[in-house]
């Protein structure tokens, strides 16, 4: 099995991809451990602050020592320089807010999954032509499940995952899966700023378990 297929299968099997960023290394690692305990085996850390690269490097170190099954992805990749840095740091997959052709050309030949954010058929066509197989619908709250339903038959060979605006409720999650997505990306609705601020790792774990349970009932 290729690395791209392994990552794709892992994300699809769990059905939700948690994503978060925290400037504090300890908080970052504790959230990672909480997600792992909840059953998560693929997570996206977003490159949205000065501490992102050093924190991610530490995450890889801890993963290798304590949770070998966890796949660590990096999000908010906007250029090749960033992709190179996190490739060296050991990222298992890469996610962008938009499609960057140079990033696709750098990662895909290395058998690394690249999931760019797209919100138009034109962008999706460009990504597919570059070898992308897993599309992030972004921003999901602006597009809505109706967009997924409308384009699904045009792109039968692609997998889709909305990020942005997906709630932790069964109604929200179900509406996306019924529309045809393979997974849902979940950021602040799951790992909220408030939970990070109060270091409420137990609630993060429990809420993640609930989401995973909801998704299993929908499959």
Layout of helices and strands:
Blueprint: H1 3-14, E1 16-20, H2 25-38, E2 42-46, H3 52-66, E3 71-75, H4 80-89, E4 93-96, H5 101-107, E5 113-118, H6 121-129, E6 134-137, H7 140-143, H8 145-151, E7 159-162, H9 170-179, E8 184-186, H10 193-197, H11 201-218
Parallel strand pairs: 1-2, 1-8, 2-3, 3-4, 4-5, 5-6, 6-7
Helix pairs in contact: 2-3, 2-11, 8-9, 9-11
Describe the protein's architecture and organization.
This protein is of the alpha/beta class and 219 residues long. It is built from eleven helices and eight strands. An eight-stranded parallel beta sheet has the order 7-6-5-4-3-2-1-8, sandwiched between helices. α2 runs parallel beside α11. The protein is globular and about 45 Å long. The mean pLDDT is 97. It comes from Chryseobacterium formosus. Belongs to the KHG/KDPG aldolase family. Homotrimer. Keywords: Carbohydrate metabolism, Lyase. Pathway: Carbohydrate acid metabolism.
